[in-house]
Design brief:
This protein is an alpha/beta fold. The chain folds into 4 domains: 2-251, TIM Barrel; 274-464, 3-Layer(aba) Sandwich (Rossmann fold); 487-635, Aminopeptidase; 641-816, Aminopeptidase (3-Layer(aba) Sandwich). The strands form 4 sheets. Strands 14, 15, 16, 17, 18, 19, 20, 21, 22, 23, 24, 25 and 26 form a 13-stranded mixed beta sheet that branches. Strand 16 (547-556) and strand 17 (561-569) form a beta hairpin. Helix 8 packs across helix 9 (201-216), helix 13 (309-319) packs antiparallel against helix 14 (325-352) and helix 14 (325-352) packs parallel to helix 17. The longest helix is centred in the middle third of the chain and has 28 residues, at 325-352. It is elongated, with a radius of gyration of 34 Å.
Length: 825
């Protein structure tokens, strides 16, 4: 089911082929798969994630992809469990046979579709199930013992001429009601070519004795045996020979296959992780948790999967003479659960460098220990593994969900505590339960699956899996959004409307918008720079000309960077998908730019939003989550800020700072105009940040209102550092709204670039800024705006000069080649 969740039949084929190559290396030539059951009854269902889902066409397509992968590697293939285990009714105890109650007509339209299609595509063998069938005109105690099912339905109706294999005859109901010896004779006479007995040597002896007795009593004819022998030999000829069978490649081939197959496995798991719902935008966890917050992980006690390291550890423990086998079997369900999920807890803690609390839960329900941990944690993760068959998990999860919904803040306000439910087996646990707001599925709990899960939880990649089958269709319906008509910004038509929209955002105190937009106008977004391709978009009312939303994009040709410089919506029309529509159009446009290398949220030029605004409490988490859901990896961001120094009329340099500058080993000067462009532009190439070149070129082209302060090495005149100096008459000031917003005569210092070879970085930076303030003060300004500073830097020196942080941002960028959320055109 996990592979069906990837949506890629090609990937399913590759995984099946890789699996077959490894099995062949071990000398095995028959794969007892694919599983072709259509899962129409998910409750009390032993198949679980072994099926591809509940849609017959989808099960058919992925089943055939698997079958072809197996066959192309050289294995014989077997479909199971004919005529379908997907709709079994469990009527009572183990001695009661699970029953198919659907009519043949109903089966033909649904459950038999994948089997019929696989037969047409060349399926080698078919396993016939041991279930009962009860409907009008069809009463069968065990399908694999019934000539009506094996011979009439499978061979005559579906035209299957390959090998038929019985289900295991050791099932309690069959051995108790008929006996293994008699069942063997009945299976052969029904048309089975191979009879399966999986576990008990005693039962295998009993089957052979029954077979011999059937021959001696002529209940089984030699003609019947010859027919089966010919079918088996025909299948053997397709998949093996004595040379192959006696000389399996073994460890050497497995070692060669391992690197490529590990990569393929990781790709498949990464592609399968499915976020079914995230109503409150809790993912990635970095959106809702600070480093000091505690995360609580609650996991059930389950036996490990057979192929997991935890299972291997238990086996080794048993073989080393620890508890006797019977005791070990009895205690495994308790002992192994924590081992299976302990590494998940460790991975969560390692990834976030924060504290993760981890404890298990059982059928005893929510205990006082659980309640204490829930109250203490900032967010809770509950893991479920097949909760529909382990109902205590369902009850526990619902109880914890209720506790989380009833949390209150210190001020008495109701405040829902973040809860994430992870289903690591059947995705049906809470697929349709809308009360679980954030629900993620992995389809199994092997180590590789849990590694992929942790990466999704922390935003290292965007989960692309979708629930397979019909359930995903209802999921897609619930996630549908309005698609607004997005138009290109027309300066003549839309400038006035954009000014009004900016005013609405500022006056509406829209979190994350009003501070940065204050002082901006429609002109603030229009660069008119030949090296920058700009495309801006609006959602508008064509009748009233009012703008409902605006998005600006810039493509900086020298660096190949596509930037979303701003995106905002009328405060009265938020949560109507206007922002989604604008963002999708922006990304599609940037993807079409020739030479596009990376995307960036936040623009140095114009300097309105340097990134995602972060100085607004809970709004920071909401914004990060919103962009993360659109495909941005907000977990990998860079903090930047703008700063301000006021009251320059009374400002004096900090004591001792002038003397420390003399020890910086640099000469400082102030230059104007394009004559100085070449060495300055060569110097700023040492910093590959987007927009820097555009800022410096604008300053060099405007000598009346801008200058460049340089720090040079005395010996050879090489430039060690630069900043741009500008005033309110400069063209650059139009793109820094903070200059107007401060309300006084202001000057600006912008875009410091220090050579990477400089040892005294902070000293040189302080020197450039100190000289800039002196110049701005001499021009009669009372305020200095310092924009585009590293937000995680050491501000002690700048604070000493009188600067404080004005606006904080997180600059987010990603490689355009890895962008996966390409919206439909």
């Amino acid at each position: 089911m996990g592979l069906a969740a990837t949506g890629s039949k090609e990937l399913a084929y590759e995984v099946a082929k890789a699996t077959a190559e490894e099995i062949l290396a071990c000398g095995i030539n028959l794969m007892m798969g694919p599983c072709l059951d259509v899962l129409t009854n998910a409750r009390n269902q032993p198949l679980g994630v072994r099926t591809f889902g509940d849609d017959p066409q989808e099960v058919s397509a992925y089943g055939i992809a698997f079958m072809k992968g197996y066959k192309d590697a050289g294995l014989a293939t077997m479909g199971k469990h004919f005529p379908s285990y997907g709709s079994l009714e469990f009527l009572g105890s183990a001695l009661d046979v699970p029953t198919i109650t659907e009519s043949l007509e109903s089966l033909s339209l649904n459950a038999l579709v994948p089997f019929r299609n696989a037969i047409v595509e060349g399926l080698d063998a078919m396993m016939v199930g041991g279930c009962a069938m009860s409907s009008a005109g069809l009463n069968v105690m065990h399908a694999c013992l019934s000539e009506q099912v094996v011979n009439d339905l499978l061979r005559n109706d579906l035209q299957f001429d390959g090998v038929t294999i019985s289900d295991c005859l050791e099932m309690e109901a069959l051995s108790h009601n008929i006996g293994v010896g008699g069942g063997t004779v009945m299976a052969i006479n029904a048309g089975c070519d191979i009879v399966l007995l999986c576990r008990s040597f005693q039962h295998q002896q009993e089957a052979i004795e029954g077979f011999k007795l059937g021959l001696e009593n002529t209940m089984i004819t030699k003609e019947r045996l010859h027919t089966s022998l010919e079918r088996v030999l025909t299948m053997k000829a397709k998949c093996t020979s004595w040379e192959q069978a006696l000389n399996p490649p073994g460890i050497d081939l497995l070692s060669k296959l391992q690197p490529a197959h590990t990569t393929l496995s990781t790709k498949a798991y990464n592609s399968s992780i499915t976020v079914v719902r995230d109503k409150n935008r809790l993912l990635p966890l970095t959106n809702i948790m600070e480093p000091e917050d505690e995360l609580l992980l609650l996991t059930p006690l389950v036996k490990p999967l057979a192929a997991s390291a935890a299972s291997q550890a238990l086996s080794e423990q048993a073989s080393n003479g620890s508890p006797e086998p019977v005791l070990w079997e009895r205690s495994a369900s308790v002992m192994s659960g924590e081992r299976v999920f302990r590494e998940l807890g460790r991975s969560l803690a390692r990834q976030r460098s924060g504290r993760v609390l981890h404890t298990s839960y059982t059928a005893n329900g929510v205990r006082p220990q659980h309640e204490n941990l829930i109250n203490r944690a900032s967010a809770i993760i509950i893991v479920t593994a097949d909760a529909n068959r382990n109902l205590y998990q369902h009850g526990f999860t619902k109880h914890v969900s209720m506790i989380c919904n009833m949390q209150y803040s210190a001020g008495g306000e109701k405040r829902e505590k973040p809860l994430i439910v992870l289903s690591v087996s059947s995705p049906y646990d809470f697929a349709m339960d809308q009360s679980i707001g954030t629900y993620v599925c992995t389809y199994d709990f092997t180590e590789t699956a849990l590694i992929s899960l942790v990466k999704v939880l922390y935003g290292e990649f965007l989960p692309a899996g979708a629930l397979p089958g019909t359930i995903s269709q209802s999921q897609k319906l619930s996630q549908s959004k309005q698609h607004w008509l997005v138009e290109a910004f027309n300066e003549e038509r839309d400038s006035s409307g954009l000014d009004n929209l900016i005013r609405s955002c500022v006056e509406g105190n829209t979190p994350g918008l009003h501070c940065e937009l204050s002082g901006a106008s429609s002109n603030s977004f229009l660069l008119r720079n030949p090296e920058v391709v700009e495309s801006h978009f609006v959602v508008r009312n064509s009748s009233t000309q009012a703008l409902y939303g605006f998005c600006s994009t810039y493509f900086f040709k020298p660096t190949g960077t596509g930037v979303i410089g701003a995106i905002f919506v009328d405060p009265g029309r938020r949560k109507l998908s206007i922002g989604h529509s604008l963002h999708n159009r922006a990304i599609r446009t940037l993807l079409q730019r020739e030479g596009i290398k990376r995307f960036q949220l936040g623009s140095r030029l114009p300097s309105i939003y340097l990134g995602l605004p972060t100085g607004h409490g809970g709004e920071r988490k909401r914004l990060r989550s919103w962009f993360a859901n659109l495909g941005w990896n907000t977990a990998l961001s860079r903090t930047v800020c703008s700063m301000v120094a006021r009251n320059l009329s009374t400002w004096v340099p900090p004591e001792g700072m002038a003397r420390s500058l003399q020890s910086a080993g640099a000469d400082f000067d102030l230059v104007y105009g394009w004559d100085y462009a070449s060495p300055v532009l060569d110097h700023i190439k040492t910093n590959n940040r987007q927009g820097l070149a555009a800022v410096y070129k604008m300053a060099l082209s405007d000598p009346a209102a801008c200058g460049i302060i340089r720090a040079k090495r005395p010996e050879d005149g090489a430039i060690l550092g630069t900043v741009v100096l500008y005033n309110m008459q400069s063209q650059l000031a139009e793109y820094v709204p903070a200059m107007k917003d401060v309300g006084e005569l202001a000057g600006g210092i912008s875009s410091p670039v220090i050579s990477p070879s400089v040892g005294e970085f902070s000293t040189l930076l302080q020197g450039l800024i100190l000289l800039g303030i002196r110049q701005i003060k001499q021009q009669g300004c009372n305020v200095c705006v310092l924009d585009y500073m590293d937000g995680d830097g050491n501000f002690d020196g700048l604070s000493a000069m009188g600067f404080s942080v004005l606006h904080n941002f997180e600059e987010v960028s990603c490689d355009a080649a890895t962008w996966t959320m390409v919206p439909p055109s």
